[in-house]
Amino acid sequence: MGNQRNNVSLSEVIEDKDNFVKAVFSLIVENESGVLSRVIGLLSGRGYNIESLTVAPVNKDEKKSRINILTSGTPMVIDQIKEQLSRQVPVYHVVNLCEQSSYVARELALIKVVSKGNERTEALNLAGAFRAQVVDASIDSLVFELTGKTEKINAFVDLLRPLGLVELSRTGIAAIGRGCHTIY
């Protein structure tokens, strides 16, 4: 039965899309060249989609980094991804934050709007409502900074599209468990 669990074909995954669930994996890895490439290669080589990816050092003395990966799949595929990530040599800890009682996830976005007149005023009004900060302004453009849940950023972006949105840069999610639970 264990072998059947690890031998999921891509066609079975595609047929079972109705049962897809989100997963937010947080990994503590060795901060060295090639680690990120190996983690991404493991996922992409098996046909898993990475919806969001962030990585940054968390402990310079111990040379460790944290990787946050947002992906989706059937529960069986999510379990398979966790098992495969856990087996990677430079990976110290792997947690699927969605399996914990709760977690906090935030994203940062920089959004450029090119507009004048009423559209510019409306963009500024929306920024106030969403608590976005103006981080650059010129006569015909604004750059907003917005931090929050992915859904909040998506809603802000959708409202700015007709007002002259021309460029978007997003960080992907940073996530951490709530309460006393840790990745360690």
TrEMBL record:
One of its GO terms (cellular component) is cytosol. GO terms for molecular function: acetolactate synthase activity; acetolactate synthase regulator activity. It catalyses: 2 pyruvate + H(+) = (2S)-2-acetolactate + CO2. Keywords: Amino-acid biosynthesis, Branched-chain amino acid biosynthesis, Transferase. The keyword Transmembrane helix does not apply. Its EC number is 2.2.1.6. One of its GO terms (biological process) is L-valine biosynthetic process. CDD domains: ACT_AHAS. Gene3D superfamilies: 3.30.70.260, ACT-like. Chain A, domain 2 (3.30.70.1150). The keyword Transferase applies. Residues 24-100 form the ACT domain. Pathway: Amino-acid biosynthesis; L-valine biosynthesis; L-valine from pyruvate: step 1/4; Amino-acid biosynthesis; L-isoleucine biosynthesis; L-isoleucine from 2-oxobutanoate: step 1/4. It holds the Pfam family ALS_ss_C. InterPro entries: Acetalactate_synth_ssu (IPR004789), Acetolactate_synth/TF_NikR_C (IPR027271), Acetolactate_synth_ssu_C (IPR019455), ACT-like_dom_sf (IPR045865), ACT_dom (IPR002912), AHAS_ACT (IPR039557), AHAS_small-like_ACT (IPR054480). Dimer of large and small chains. NCBIfam families: acolac_sm (TIGR00119), PRK11895.1 (NF008864). Belongs to the acetolactate synthase small subunit family. Catalyzes the conversion of 2 pyruvate molecules into acetolactate in the first common step of the biosynthetic pathway of the branched-amino acids such as leucine, isoleucine, and valine. This is Acetolactate synthase small subunit. It comes from Commensalibacter melissae.
